[in-house]
Design a protein that fits this description.
mainly alpha, about 80% helix, about 140 residues
Amino acid sequence: MSDRHSVDQGVRSAQLGVLVNAALAAIKLVAGVVGNAYALVADAVESTSDIFSSLIVLGGLRLASREPNDEFPFGYGRAETLSAAVVALMLLGTAIGIAVEAIREILTPHHAPAPWTLGVLVAVIVVKWFVSRRVKAT
């Protein structure tokens, strides 16, 4: 498999991830707010961070695929490593934010989630499973 094919495959996977996560984030946020399901709201935040992660990875892949030039005679390959580091730090920040909010929610009494929000969670799991199978197959 050529490097160019690998980059193109990574770009397509990242683009699919952005589209799917954007749709899922919107659905989970609305369902979570309307149905009092704070786990869905937290998952919407996580999906939104996935969108930004995919965009960062996409930018890193595009930059890394550039040919070496006079300014960078060894190429741009480290862009992938830098984008991975940025994504890792961003996910750490997201996890800390969700943990802080979870503690606040535990300490604050609120209504139980609407029963139909469980169906939303199941649908999200199914969609994510199909997307992962699609990405793995490419």
